[in-house]
Sequence to fold (380 residues):
Amino acid sequence: MTDASTCETATDLAERLIACPSVTPAQGLVFDALEAMLVPLGFEIDRFVRGEAPDGPVENMLAVRPGPAGSRHFAFAGHLDVVPPGEGWTSAPFAPERRGDLLYGRGAVDMKGSIASMVAALGQVPADAGTISFIITGDEEGPAVYGTRALIDRMRERDLAPDLCLVGEPTSVNRLGDMVKIGRRGSVNIWLEVEGVQGHVAYPHNADNPIPRLVAMLAELDALVLDEGTDWFQASNLEITDLEVGNPAHNVIPALAKARISIRFNDMHTGAELGATVSEIAARHGGRAIPVISGESFLTPPGAFSAMITEAIRAETGIEPELSTSGGTSDARFLKDVCPVIEFGLCNATMHKRDEAVAMADLEALARIYARVAQAALRS
Fold:
């Protein structure tokens, strides 16, 4: 490989990706940039767009560097979309800037930096070691309806299933390598409604106020103890996230009261079971529940795959990582249906924040870790 792209550092590559504005749903230029990095490295590129408004269209990329027939297949996965930068940045969010030891720009941590480290790692992984793929979406920070799920459909159409998959989410907390995610809790959001009969407050016998029934429903839900946690998961939690009546008149009993709850749950539950439980409680109070499941919980039990990642981190940083299932959801919740999946990436202190930044030394170290993991996965 003699193309100039193979001589670029992970920091150089991260700059190229950050320089492409890619607020969810990302399309076009940022995918062009990644394709230009991967083609000289022997990757076959499959870019496609799925979906219509309001959750689409979404661009995705499935890039494959085929190995010898019968060889193992290792996948890197991630997203090129970023959250809106907001106001008040010290420098322009999509004009990457090196200041001191840090590289600034939206996506530096979450997660263009990790994708750049994945690309940089390939220079240390021989083409005949096995098949390597990149599973990259432009919609992880948004609805995620036509992103990684569409990529999984595409992989199934092509009969292309990795043996192992590493997602580059920013999992590290205080130092690169201190935390690896081997699972995630599930997520279900539930909209609650109680209907009443509108009327004058001076004539309550002619009306039916839905608010007391909604309040009683929420009190019962808030008092639920879903579980005490498991060996690998913290306790599930239910949070009230919205309460709405929208009554502009002080002398009118409203006809409708609404609320929303969010449940993050461990592997003792499923989204459907929790939705049914909440629906039953809502019905007892004369209301209804509308559950929307964002993803189920999953666990990749500690074993050979997590050991590969632990050993690679230890070799490059001297750190013994904590295996964890903490935090929010990621697209690993979909990829776990394809093959064993683990998440590991940069320090997450500035993700989604103003002046998002990554230590350039971490980008280079992460590339070396990813190279070690890929080689071990293809050998195993």
Q: What stands out?
A: Confidence is low (pLDDT under 50) at residues 1-5. The chain has nine helices and 19 strands.
